[in-house]
Give the backbone structure.
Amino acid sequence: MKTKLIIGGVAILVVGAAIGAWATYSFAQNLIMENLPIGTAV
């Protein structure tokens, strides 16, 4: 029973981390697109 709780907790952490990473990536991409002339100049 405890192993199922541990697996469930790990799964939730992994899913949460994946969503957080995707949200950060998406947000960063929007910033890059808004500041494209600056980004392409560098």
